[in-house]
Amino acid sequence: MRYLVWPLRALLFLLLLGFAVKNDQPVVLRYFFGYEWQTSLVVILLCFFTAGVLVGVLAMLGNMFRQRRELSALRRDLHLKNKLAEIENAQHLPIHPS
User: Fold this and answer.
1) How many other CB atoms sit within 10 Å of the CB of residue 76?
2) 29: DSSP letter
3) CA 56 to CA 38: how far, in whole Å?
């Protein structure tokens, strides 16, 4: 599998490089109040792709932190139950005089 991943990565890189080379025309983005930004199409697509990734990661963070809190609470409960089980087992063991 490891030998298959690197050629796929190289193919994806070449496809994206070819896409970037073919789409180097200047594009003007016009904002409100007369602001505008002129750059190549590839730069604009890269910026919007990056912004989309950041929005996705930020949307995921709340769920991830909630799951981490829940996992730590479950670990604490398990640790407490194991301690109580050890104490209960120690109390039920008969003590033999030596």
Assistant:
1) 10
2) E
3) 27
Q: Is residue 5 part of a domain?
A: no
Question: Which of 38, 15, 35, 14 has its CA nearest to residue 25?
Answer: 38
The token pair at 45 is: 């697509």
Helices then strands, counting H and E runs in the chain, come out as: 2, 2
State pLDDT tens for residues 23-61.
Answer: 788 889 888 988 998 988 888 888 999 999 999 999 999
Considering its fold, how many domains does the chain have in total?
1
Q: Which residues contact 47 (CB under 8 A, 6 or more apart)?
A: none
pLDDT at 87: 83
Rounded to the nearest integer, the mean pLDDT of the chain is 88
b/e per residue 39-67 (b: at least 16 CB within 10 A): eeebebeeeeeeeeeeeeeeeeeeeeeee
| Domain span including residue 49 | 16-91
